[in-house]
Amino acid sequence: MRYSKQRKEILEIVKSTNSHPTADWIYERVRMQVPNISLGTVYRNLRQLVDNDLIHARTVNGMVHYDGSLGDHQHFYCTNCNTLYDLDLSLEDFVSEITENLGYVIHGCDLQLNGVCNSCQQDQ
Amino acid sequence: MRYSKQRKEILEIVKSTNSHPTADWIYERVRMQVPNISLGTVYRNLRQLVDNDLIHARTVNGMVHYDGSLGDHQHFYCTNCNTLYDLDLSLEDFVSEITENLGYVIHGCDLQLNGVCNSCQQDQ
DNA sequence: GTATATGCAAACAATTTGCACGCCT
DNA sequence: AGGCGTGCAAATTGTTTGCATATAC
């Protein structure tokens, strides 16, 4: 995989935020650095970066969000303000227990808790 | 909410399978009973049934799958055969523990384990 | 009788793809 | 030099919506 200006910039953007951006948000961002980049290029690069495991992708509310942190963590989604928070929570033990019981080979897991976050609770 | 022939049929189909069907699969099924039903009607009904909490919806690989079992359970997705299995696994205790620690109000949770299922392991 | 649901087709939004050209290595 | 990456626009796909008609209650 080659590293074009576009690809480097996209990777940099995803890595440098913890806001779990969508392709469109990333597109707007890259355009500040690479004004005439096309949306197709953004999609192609995001896909390639995911395939090469340099970033992760997850679907929330039917839209794909990208995540630059590759460590073992899970997510909390506030149904009020639609923010996706990182949960510093490892499921390694939990998952290996399930593996033993069922005989599945587990490659990854994906826990998302939905609810109302602290700041939204205060607003109500 | 009224119960038209179409709506009854769609609910029946989703309730009577554990294969987590997509809208399109359901559309093909309903057409056997209601030949000139439209795809739009299928989508409208699925949405309404989800809104009224008669069925559940979850996104896997960017496509919405519907689930007629409302009990507390989670899912295992085989990345080899793309089957979504039910996991008879309650996360109630686990989740309430996290709630206490972080102060979030949790409305629901969604765990998906990805890997290779037993029959796919045997095939390889 | 009236509100709600339907079929149909057009509109949408997110994403993918074909193609000719351009740039990394 | 050769292959991978790009920009652009058109195509796909999954889903939603507007409208006139039909149906449940």
Q: In CATH terms, what is the architecture of the largest domain in chain A? A: Orthogonal Bundle
Largest sheet of chain A: 3 strands, mixed
**Helical fraction of chain A:** 40-55%
Q: How much β-strand is present in the residues of chain A?
A: 25-35%
Write down the overall mean pLDDT of chain A: 88
Largest interface: A-B, 30 and 30 residues
Reported by name, the CATH topology of the largest domain in chain A is Arc Repressor Mutant, subunit A
Low-confidence spans of chain A: none
Shape of chain A: flat
Oligomer: homodimer
The CATH class label of the largest domain in chain A is Mainly Alpha
Task: Please give the order of strands in the largest beta sheet of chain A.
Answer: 4-3-5
Number of strands of chain A: 5
* Count of individual helical segments of chain A: 5
- Supply the helix-strand structural class of chain A: alpha+beta
User: What is the H/E string of chain A?
Assistant: HHHEEEEHEH
For CATH, the homologous superfamily of the largest domain in chain A is named as Winged helix-like DNA-binding domain superfamily/Winged helix DNA-binding domain
Descriptive overview:
The structure is a homodimer of 124-residue chains. Chain A is an alpha+beta fold and 124 residues long. Chain A has 2 domains: 5-67, Arc Repressor Mutant, subunit A, CATH 1.10.10; 74-123, Ferric-uptake regulator, C-terminal dimerisarion domain (Dna Ligase, domain 1). Chain A contains 5 helices and 5 strands, in the order H-H-H-E-E-E-E-H-E-H. In chain A, the strands form 2 sheets. The first copy, chain A, has a 3-stranded mixed β-sheet with strand order 4-3-5. In chain A, strand 1 (56-60) and strand 2 form a beta hairpin. In chain A, helix 1 (5-15) packs across helix 2, helix 1 (5-15) packs across helix 3 (39-51) and helix 2 (23-33) crosses helix 3. The longest helix of chain A has 13 residues, at 39-51. The radius of gyration of chain A is 17 Å and the shape is flat. The model of chain A has no long low-confidence stretch (mean pLDDT 88). Chains A and B meet through helix 4 and strand 5 of A and helix 4 and strand 5 of B. The first copy, chain A, binds a DNA duplex (25 and 25 nucleotides) through residues 1-7, 22-24, 36-41, 43-45, 47, 62-64.
